[in-house]
Each structure stands twice: as C-alpha cells, then as structure tokens.
Amino acid sequence: MTKTSIQIQFEKIKTRELNTKPVVVAYGLMNSGKSSLLNMLTENVEPEFFKTNDIRETIENKGFEGERYIYLDTPGLDANNEDDNYAESGVNQADIVLFVHQPQGELEANEIEFLRKLLSSFGEYASQHIIIVLSKMEKEEAEKIQAIERRIHQQCQTELGFSATIFQVSNKRFQAGILKSQQALISRSNIPELAAHLARLAATATAPRARRAMREIDVLLHEVEQAEQQLRADKSQLRSQISHAFARFNHQIEHLHTYLDVSASDFKRL
Amino acid sequence: MALPWLIGALVVGAVSAVVKAVNSDDNSSSSSNSSSDEDAVRRRRAAAEEQRLKKEKETERADVQAAFKRRGEVIGRNLTESLDGWMAVRAADSAPFRASLTSAGYIVPAPREDAATAVEVLLWSSLERDDELNLIVQNLNFFGSVYDVQLRGGDQLRRTLGELHVIAQREEELLQLKRKLLTLGRDIAQAS
C-alpha cells in the first residue's frame, strides 16, 4: 500500500468516525425488497425515496438521513461485478445490516458467502447487528415462511456459526396500511417491530464500527511500518553506495599521511 | 809581525760571527711563518670542505624536496581519480601539491577557505553524522589542505543525496501519518 492510499484509508475512517449517526445498510439479492423496506422504515411510503421496480433500479449506494440513523440502499448482490463493488464498499460503513431475503427458499450460496464477509467485519457484534429480514411474507403461507425461517436459522448456525436475528415483514401491507390508515395492516406488516428493534439497537449501534475502525487502523499501522522498513532499507543501500564510493579515497588519504610522515622523518635525518 | 795576521783573524772571526748571527735570525722567522701558513691553509681547506658538504647537503635536500613534490603530485592525481563521479576536483594550477619538508617535519600552508566547505555543508545537511561520515569529511578537508584544490559535489553524489532527501521526506510523512492513526485509534477507543 502506498503512502497515498494509506492516507486515503485514514481519511475514510476518520470521516466515518465523525459521522455520529449509526448507519443501517440494506443488502440482499436483486429485487429482494431492500429499497421498499428502507422506504417503509424511513416513512417514505409515498413518494418513495429509494427507487423500486421489478427491474434493477438501485445501481449505486444511496443514503437517507433519518432522525436516528442513516439508511443506505445497495445494488443487488447478484446484479453485476460493478454493483458488487458498490455493495461491498458499504460493508465497512455499516453499523447495522438488514439482510433482505425473499422467502422463496433457503439462503443461496452467494448470500451465504456475502454473510460470511459481514460476519468477518462484525465479529462479536454479528448476532445483534446483522438482521435477516424475510420480505414479501404476504406472498407465501405463514407455515412455509416459518419453515424457511427455521431453515435459515439452521444455515446460519451450521454454515456460518452465528445465531441470526430474523424478522418477517411485508412492505406492501405496511404501505397499504399507511395509505389507507389501517392500523391492522400496519401491525401485520411487522415493520413497526423491526423499527422498534432498530431503535433499541441505536444505543450500541456504533460498537461494530469502533471495532472495525480499530482493526483497520491496525492494518494501516502495519502498512506504515512496512513502508518505513522499505525506506530504511533503501536509505541503507544508498548510504552503502556512498561508503563504497569513498573507500578508495579514504585509503589513498591514509597512504598520503604515511607518505608525508615517512618523508618528513627521512628528511630530518639529512 | 803577527799583529796584522791577528787583526786579520780577528776580523775574519768577527765577520763569521756576524754572518752566523745573521743566518740564525733568518732561520727562526721562516719556521714561524710556515706553521701559520699551514693553519690558514687547513682552515681554508676545512671551510671549503664545509662549504662543499653544505652545498652537497643542500643539493641533496633540494633533490629530495623535488622528488617529494613529484611523488606528492602523483598521489594527488590518484586521489582525484578515486573521487571520479562523486566529487568535482578543481586544481588551482597544474601542480597543486602544497606540502613541503623542513627539518621539523612537513608543513602545509593554511587551506583555502572554500577548499572543502561546500562539500562539508552538502554532506552534513544530507547524512546522519557517524564515524564514517566524520572520517570522509576529515579526509576531504585534509585533501583540500595538502592540495590547492576546490572540492564540489559530483553528479553521482548529488543524485544519491537527492534520493536520500526524498526518503527523509517520505519518512517524515509516514511518521505524521502514524501519529494521526494512533491518535484516531486512541480517540475511538476512548469514545467507545
């Protein structure tokens, strides 16, 4: 890592740390309901803030600053490589992750892989701060969704080694409830429960960020040390060049001293 | 009559006595003259010998001085060659060797003010002082005093010192960055 890139990373960490509001980032496959979920949580029921559609709408990370949190939407994990880069760039910013999964079945292989990266980033805070959200629960029967939830719990335990916090939600029910002022719909959406859970997490939400920042700082300090070592080696080599260059001169000066002393001594005896 | 014979004998005797007396006077003054002459000759000879020896010694000394200078110039050229590329050596004239031999030893005139100063400044400002650098500077100053030369940093030295300067700058930047990282880490730890 060059000094410039270390400097850039340092500035990123510092900027993140200056941002006191925790960041909630939504991840998931394309069209899993991430943008809709964030619209509901941020009360952007209509008009929507985070663009939704059946086609790929989110192509870069987009943020919304709420009262308590900053919400960040990401492109689908399976969209394309460039989108994946955007998605992954949000990992280091996330204090809380809403991992959104359509309950068509269990977690797919690429979802498992991405969760693995998140776990590495969150460490001991993973169980609390990574929330798996089963979206579009209105589309399946309750029992099937329960079965899927159990299966996902199992996958998280056996394949990832962590106890997942899982919420089932329905964005559509929440939206309809708000638009029609129907509290029953709102309640059955589970969006308020999820929002309440996020509110409870707010107090300790930035703990993973601090942990992450310390790890990143350690990495950067190591990079600095490596760079310093290289500079010391370069300096030593250049110094050796000078020593070598003057070695012959120094030897000739010794010879000169000897010559002068011997000549003077011989001259005195004349 | 015997008297005329006696008078004659007396006269002869007297004359002889006079002649003898005169002769003995002559002999004693010539022997004292010859010993002082000899002394003078000896003294002159000794003085001449002394002069000759002195001249011989002077010639010998002059020859030794000349050989000393010639050899000194050769050493000077070797020294200049040994610095090729690293130092620019400019001699004031074609025979810059300034040392000379005396009965007390060798003497060297006071060095030119700017003989090695510029190089000294260049080296001190770019390199950490250690025994090796001290020796190099000491030797350059000695070269600048024994020989009537001006020393300046050569291309290779300037290039190398330039690279060292860049390294020093980068080290300082990394040190600043390290301090910032440590401060940030401390602040984050305290905040959490």
Largest interface: A-B, 48 and 51 residues
User: Which whole number gives the mean pLDDT of chain B?
Assistant: 84
Radius of gyration of chain A: 31 Å
DSSP strand (E) fraction of chain B? 5-15%
Widest sheet, order of strands of chain A: 2-3-1-4-5-6
What class, by secondary structure content of chain A?
alpha/beta
Could you tell me how far the N terminus lies from the C terminus of chain B, measured between alpha carbons in angstroms?
A: 176 Å
**Counted beta strands of chain B:** 4
Proportion of helical residues of chain B: over 70%
β-strand percent of chain A reads 5-15%
Strand arrangement within the widest β-sheet of chain B reads 1-4
Protein structure class of chain B: mainly alpha
What would the principal axes of the Cα set say about the shape of chain A?
rod-shaped
Catalogue the unreliable spans of chain B. Answer: none
**Could you estimate the helical fraction of the residues of chain A in percent?**
55-70%
Please outline the major beta sheet of chain A.
6 strands, mixed
Query: Terminal Cα separation of chain A, in Å?
Result: 71 Å
User: How many DSSP H or I helices of chain B?
Assistant: 4
